Amino acid sequence: MADKKDYIFEEISALSDKITATPGLPNELQEDLKQRLDRLDRMAKLGHYASEFDALSRYIDVITRIPWAAKTEDSLDLDEAKRILDKNHYGMEDVKERILEYVATMKLIKDRGQDAIARSPILLLVGLQGVGKTTLAFSLADVLGRKFARVPIGAIGSALELRGKNKSLPQAEPGQIIKALIRTQSMNPVILLDEIEKASGEEGLRSDIMAVLLEILDPSQNTAFRDHYVDFPVDLSDVLFVCSANNTGGISTALMDRLEVVKMPSYTDTQKIVIAKDYLLPKIFENSGLREGELTIQEDLWPQIVRPLGFDTGIRSLGRILEAICRKAAKEIVEGKSKSVEITAQNLKYYLPKW
Question: What predicted TM-score, i.e. pTM, was given to this entire model?
Fold first, then answer.
């Protein structure tokens, strides 16, 4: 029993050191945690500590993993921003121009000593599946030199998944926003709230989720966001939130009032061919182990590759088609059937994936 008590006292001491060593931990929260540890220390001396210790240990672990003082420095170079956008995205000139305007506005306000993030509108990227909404949000983070996190709102069935569960409840944990800060280890990442119109189909739950999103995105409220698990105000004002949606039908009017819609265009077949040849195929070659010259596709076959089953607005399915073609070619080369593969009108059907 003495050994077990010695162990718990060592753990309490380690937790205390962890609290002291956490950069930027608010003084009020630090004092509260130390008082909790003192209480746990007294309980341990009486032999009553097991459940209390487990809950407090998990709580301190979460609190000390929040990057209270960690931020990245913004890169607001317009020329570099344009280079990154052109490298990552073909076409979409109007959308890329809108992003450059957004960065320019941030730079101007920052240069003049104002709060660029609080005053910048929150972008809502609206477009059909596969047109590049998530990739564009990631590119914005790349342009600014910030960390990136994605929070899929479509998979959320309760507001508690955003706001967290009270730490006194069984299996309590912080919400997705706090988890995003922990994952990125930054207090000013770009966080994509993905598919916000697909929040719970039940009207009451949807309203609750929209209300929490409103608090998260409203600059007048998010300076003191209170996650139920953390139970202490967390300043989200430096986070750059970006939202995406397939349409705006399921988004509340109050939330729409805080968002600036950027419409993502669908790709034409001509654009898809350029994207497939210049953007997708080189990356897929690298991931499948193929070298240049080991797979060639006759030029006149590209229209059939980009539209094997009819019109598709995005490029996600096109990527899967090219991956399937490359996998079959890699298999033939590994089996020694050929040193290189040429896709022709005669064998195209064999290389296309089977639906």
Answer: 0.83
